[in-house]
Write a structure and sequence with these properties.
Elements (H helix, E strand, L loop, with lengths): L14 H10 L6 H8 L5 H6 L7 H10 L3 H17 L12 H9 L17 H11 L7 H11 L5 E4 L28 E4 L3
Parallel strand pairs: 1-2
Length: about 200
């Protein structure tokens, strides 16, 4: 039996909620992902995905603080402006916290256009998070059926490595609703490894 890699979202990506939030609230493109990335291993998002902290008010306060980090904001603008100068006319000016962005940030002068950096946008971490989690409860209309097909029509052993968040037992998101086909998501895999468990 062969071994295949099957890498995809089997639920709707929560990143769409980030894009929508930025557009609706006039927040610069990719700032939220950039801020989450720059918060590093000790960031609230990283810690909740590793199951190191509970989903409570302290998490939302820490997540909000990560999204309002002035150093990350300044770095974001250095990356953005430096990339725009390097790629003028390419149409790609976002800053997402990638390895390339780290290189660009290191190359950009520390005081580049410091006087023109706008104030940090205000981000309410609670509705942002809740929207992300709501979106990701829905099965992806293309990938979930493909996963089911692999499960029922192929001899492959299927495994999942998933970034997850553990909700308190009393939270409505602690389990999928009965009418949601995602309720048997884990049953589609022979091995399911969740980051927060």
């Amino acid at each position: 039996m062969g071994i295949e890699n099957f890498i995809a979202f089997t639920v709707v990506s929560p990143f769409q909620a980030i894009v929508d939030y930025e557009v609706q609230n006039g927040i610069p493109k990719d700032w939220i992902n950039f801020a989450i990335s720059r918060s590093g291993p000790s960031g609230a998002w990283q810690r909740i995905e590793r199951g190191e902290i509970p989903l409570d008010d302290a998490f939302f306060d820490a997540f909000r603080a990560d999204l309002h980090d002035p150093r990350a904001w300044e770095e974001y603008h250095r990356v953005f402006k430096h990339r725009r100068r390097r790629r003028s006319g390419s149409g790609s000016t976002g800053a997402s916290g990638s390895a390339e962005d780290e290189t660009l940030a290191a190359a950009a002068p520390e005081d580049a256009d410091a006087a023109t950096i706008p104030p940090l946008p205000t981000i309410d971490s609670t509705p942002l998070f809740c929207t992300m989690m709501t979106i990701s409860r829905a099965p992806d209309p293309y990938m979930f059926p493909a996963l089911r097909y692999l499960r029922t029509h192929t001899p492959f052993l299927l495994g999942a490595l998933s970034n997850t968040i553990t909700f308190p037992p009393s939270h409505p998101f602690s389990r999928p609703p009965d009418d949601n086909p995602r309720k048997d998501l884990r049953a589609q895999f022979d091995v399911f490894v969740a980051s927060s468990e």
